Amino acid sequence: MTYEEALALAKQIAMADPEVKFAEPDLIMRPTMVPNDPGYAYQPDLYPGTPAGINVPAAWDRTNGAGVVVAVVDTGYRPHADLAANLLGGYDFITINPYLPGVSPNDGDGRDSDARDPGDWCTSDPNRQTSSWHGTHVAGTIGAVTNNGRDIAGVAHGAKILPVRVLGMCGGYASDIADGIEWAAGLPITGVPTNATPARVINLSLGGPGTCGVGAYLDYFDAITKARNKGAVVVVAAGNDGADAANTVPANCPGVLAVASVSSSGSRSWFSNYGPTVALAAPGESIYSTHNTGTTVPGSDKLSYLSGTSMAAPHVAGVAALMLSANPSLAVDAVTSLLRSSSKPFPASCTGCGIGIVDAAAAVNAAIAYGGTNRIDESSFFVQQLFFDVLRRKPEASGLSFYVGALNSCNGNSACLASTRANIARGILESPESRALYPELNPSSSSYNDAFVTYCYKLFLQRQFDPEGGVYWYNYLNSTGDYTGVVNGIIASSEYRKRFGTP
C-alpha cells in the first residue's frame, strides 16, 4: 500500500466512526544517513540547515539514485578511485577535423569508445589553460561512491554515470556536443554503436555565446528536443559571464533546466549568469569533488575545490536522478516542475537566480507523492505550471487562489474547463509581466501574430515550432484573430499533456 492509499484509508476510518478522534498512517522512522566519507566534512553544499545547502541526507533516507543513468556530457573522465565503481563505458565524440583547426581531442584519435580524459590543456592564446579535469569533477558531485570511508559523497551515489566526451583541447564543436546529447539519450548516431544504457538525466556544464536554434546552434535545439522526447531531463549550467543567460547557449534552449550558482550564503555568485532563462539555483562556489593532479597529461587522483555554474548544475542533475529513482514513472516536465515547486526560497534577494535553491529532500518527497498520474488536469498544478513556464516564478497565494477558484467554478464541466484554462493561459501570456520578459510580445507590432505563435510553442511546448504546425496556427490566427483558440489548441494537445505524464 502506498502512503497516499494509506492516508485515504485513514481518512475513511476517521469519518466512518465517531469514536475515532483521528487516524493517520503509522510511518516508519529511520535515522538520517550521514556518510562516513571524510571529505563530506568539506561539502556543506549537501547539508541541511545551511543557507545554500541542498538538504540531501534526508533524501538519501528514501533513495540513492539506484537504477538511473546520468550522462555527463563534458571532457570525459578519469577513473578516480572514488568514482570508478559508478562509471559506465561512455563514448568519445570529439572529431578530428583538419578543416576546423583549433580544437583537438588530445588523444591522437577521433571518435571511439574510450571516453577517458587525456587532459584538455590548451597552449593557444587567448584560451591558454592547464588541464581542467572538468568532467571528472562534475561526475563526482553527481555520483561519487558514498559511505565507503574515503574521499567525498555524491548526490546520487546509487546512480550510474555515463561519460560522454565532447570537450578536448581548447573546447569542443557544437556538432560533436549535439551528437553526444542524442547518443546519451539512446538515439542513433551514424557510425557509432547504439548506447545500451540511455540516460534519464543529461548534465551539460558547458556553453558559449549564441542563440539556441539559430545558425550553428540549430544542432543544439534538435538534439535537446529529441533527448527530451526520449525521456531525458536536460540540466544546463547558466554560464559564468555575470550576464543575462538569455545570450548563452545551450542555457537558452527551450526545455532545459538552466542552473545559476549561489554562494554558501545563498546569494548569487558574482560570476553567475542570471535572468528569466534561469530555472533554479544551486551551490557553485568552492565545491569539493573528484579531480586529478596533472596540469597537462593525467597525474594522480586528488580532490579539489572548483567554482562555477558548471559545479552548480550537477547538484540539480543529481537531485533529478534521486527523483527518478524514487518514482521512475515521472515524465520529463513532471521532474522539472517538481524541482521548481519544491525548491527552497532564497535567504535574501537573488535577482535572476530562478525560482529557488534546489532542495533534494523536498524534491524526492514531491516525486513520490506525484505517483503515476498526470497532474496537469489538477487546477492548482496547471496554474502553477503556467507561472513556471511563462513568468518563471511561483505564483503568489492570491493569484493561485483566484485562478483555481475560476476553474473550480466550472464544477467539472469539460467545455467550461477548456475555455477557462485557455483564457487563463492567454491572460498570463499577455500580461504586462510577461511582455516585460518577452518584448517581442508587443500587440502594436506588425509581427505580433508571428511572435504569439512562436511563444506559445516555446513556453507551452518547450520547443520551437515545426514548419507545419507553426504555419497552420499562424494562418489560423491571421484569418480568425482567435488568440484564445490558438492557446487552447496547444494546451489541449497530447504533446502538451505528455510533458507531465501519459496524455
Q: In CATH, what is the homologous superfamily of the largest domain?
A: Peptidase S8/S53 domain
Low-confidence stretches: none
**What Rg is obtained from the alpha carbons, in whole angstroms?**
23 Å
Multimeric organization: single chain
- Tell me the β content: 5-15%
Subcellular location: Secreted
Domain Peptidase S8/S53: 65-344
Domain DUF4214: 380-437, 448-500
GO biological process, one term: proteolysis
Describe this structure in words.
The structure is a single chain. Strands 2-3-1-4-6-8-9 form a 7-stranded parallel sheet, sandwiched between helices. It has 2 domains: 38-372, Peptidase S8/S53 domain (Rossmann fold), CATH 3.40.50; 379-498, serine acetyltransferase, domain 1 (Orthogonal Bundle). It has helices spanning 3-16, 57-60, 134-143, 174-184, 218-229, 309-326, 332-341, 360-370, 379-391, 397-408, 414-429, 432-437, 448-461, 467-480, 483-491, 494-498, and strands spanning 69-74, 91-92, 160-165, 201-204, 208-209, 233-237, 248-249, 257-262, 280-283, 287-292, 301-306. The radius of gyration is 23 Å and the shape is globular. Helices cover 36% and strands 10% of the residues. It has 16 helices and 11 strands. With 503 residues, it is of the alpha/beta class. A hairpin with an 8-residue loop joins strand 10 and strand 11.
